[in-house]
Amino acid sequence: MTEPQSPLLVLAGPTGTGKTRAALELARELDGELIGADSVQVYRGFDIGSAKPSADELCGIAHHLIDVVDADQDIDAARYAGLADEAIATVRGRGRLPIVVGGTGLWIRALLRGLVDLPPVDHELRAKIEADVEARGAPALHARLAEIDPISAEAVHPNDALRIVRALEVYEQTGVPLGKLRAQHALGQPRYDAKLIALDMEREAHTALIERRSEGMLAAGWADEVRALRDRWGDSVRPFGSVGYREVLEHVRDDVPLADTVRKIRKSTRVYARRQRTWFRGEPGAWQWTEQAKLLEPDAVANLGRELKR
Asked: What is the dihedral of CA 143, 144, 150, 154, to 10 degrees?
């Protein structure tokens, strides 16, 4: 286990709230480097739909843990935490501030507090639940999960069969909801002495931004990116199950009309943002919940720098 150290800055929050821009500004002001915590940006080639920063946007600032695995490779919270530990040590070794930035809540929790000790996979039980998914569909199993484990159900998309199966499996094995186990674990001993800042914005403005953002991504060639990725990796790789990529894949593969695709992307992104908001508002130790503009005011940056040096 990593001994708690200081400083470590974490910028989290819902999608589209300006985390990357804020992190870049703070890296310039506080002599930092970025360490991603985004479960799609880690994949090579999944660029437009994950809002992966370009080389021009980074402007020479190092950004670790983007483009680190191919689409046919799995990366979970445990592996992420190990890679992030290495990146943090590298950044500190250069005498700079590590700035973790992203919206994948479980990965950030795994890094800051470790992972809950869960029972090993029961392959017979998993096969039984997976057969139920095949027979009834993932949304039906999600409805069941919502009854026994509302915390996990709120954080999981109704079509995310992989995570639904795991949550139901843990409940069958332990009799305790996975969401409850993770919530209890989150109160444990921290691995890092981190300043966790959750960014957000006013709901109406955020909704409008989500709508503009999806249209901008499609105009930037998102469908062409998905076509190329599908040609290389097929339809079933994990990042194609993420918000936005799932809908664009349906557009490319099944000829879903573009207008319907835009509507679906907007809806799924709003739902995802709500889940992220709920997660980070309940995260122990969140030091501040703020808008990007307020965080980047000169006085706020100066105060943050002083806090991190204490």
From this structure: -40
Q: Which residues contact 138 (CB under 8 A, 6 or more apart)?
A: 158, 159, 160, 161, 164
Can you tell me the distance from the alpha carbon of 62 to that of 80, in angstroms, rounded to the nearest whole number? 18
Q: Name the pTM for this structure.
A: 0.83
Beta carbons of 295 and 10 less than 8 angstroms apart:
no
Residue 13 belongs to some domain of the structure: yes
What is the per-residue pLDDT across 165-211, written as a single tens digit (0 to 9) for each? 989 999 999 999 988 887 766 656 788 989 999 999 999 999 999 99
The 10 Å CB-count burial string (b at 16+, else e) for 31-48 is ebbbbbbbbbbbbbbbbb
Parallel, antiparallel, or unpaired: how do β-strands 8-12 and 97-101 relate? parallel
> Hey, what are 243's tokens?
């918000």
Residue 173 and residue 136 share a domain: yes
Last residue of a domain, one of 184, 204, 237: 184
Q: How many folded domains does the chain comprise?
A: 2
CA distances for 48 relative to 91, 146, 219, angstroms = 27, 32, 10
In a domain, 225, yes or no: yes
* 59 inside domain: yes
CB-CB contact of 204 with 138 (8 Å): no
